[in-house]
Hints:
- Helices cover 18% and strands 35% of the residues.
- It has one domain: Penicillin V Acylase, Chain A (4-Layer Sandwich), CATH 3.60.60.
- The chain has helices at 86-93, 105-114, 165-180, 186-193, 211-217; strands at 3-8, 14-27, 32-38, 41-49, 57-60, 64-70, 122-128, 133-138, 146-147, 151-155, 227-240, 243-252, 266-273.
- It is globular and about 50 Å long.
- By secondary structure, the chain is of the alpha+beta class.
- The chain starts with a strand and ends in a 6-residue tail after the last strand.
- The protein has five helices and 13 strands.
Amino acid sequence: MCLIVFDWRPDALEGALFTLTANRDEFFRRTAEPIAWWADAPGVLAGRDLVGGGTWLGLSRDGRFAALTNYRAPHEMRADAPTRGTLVSDWLGASTPNAKPGTTPLAYLQDVARSGDLYNGFNLLIGDWTRRELGWYCNRAAAAPALLTAGTHGMSNAVLDTAWPKLVGKRAELSALLCKEPMPPLETLIDLMRDPRIARDDQLPATGIALERERALSAAFIDTPDYGTRGTTALRVVAHGEVIGVAVAERSDDNGSHRIVRPGDFERSFAFNVERELA
Length: 279
């Protein structure tokens, strides 16, 4: 994922707790599976990176959520660093002691932070809808892992809410949309992100890449010959009294055959209620 904008309303008694729309940007040669329930971890709903084995964004039946973006620091990249996508899948699948049932989002992020310097740069969102908790950590930020308060936020390839043009623009568009329509169709959220406009040169960040590349990557929807937006995900989490409902849709350039079709128009959607443990 390279651009995520989301609205977080943990105190909502009815209606949307969490609304997200996100673009995953990746090299076209890197194979991945579209969003689906995982056969080897039936409680996990996510896409799957077939190179590293993890994922970039996903959900679980018991109300967990995670999403990750890479932090752009090309001169710091290490080929021997562990894959970052397992930080998402480990939380969703409760496959490690650190993500066992009962672990809070903040505790998980704090444990990740203890070994954060082993990884290439990343931002990590970790949520638990049953606890109404959403946390963030970046292993290139001075800030410690923290829970987020209510509000509308954006995350790209720098720390949370860094004022890159595409982040500022899409965060504002999401906020305006939700003011007009608190629960817009997921298709509307997806369409919001399929925006190929690039920023002006005087607005571009300086991240250590060539100017031409910086221009191309300034678009919300990136399209270059070898790299671009591979899919868009829209997610809404809604409270109905004690019931928490989840709806997610993905528009992808790959239907699972690993043949890239641009622009992507393969769509999948899922809806379920969070399963709570009985006391």
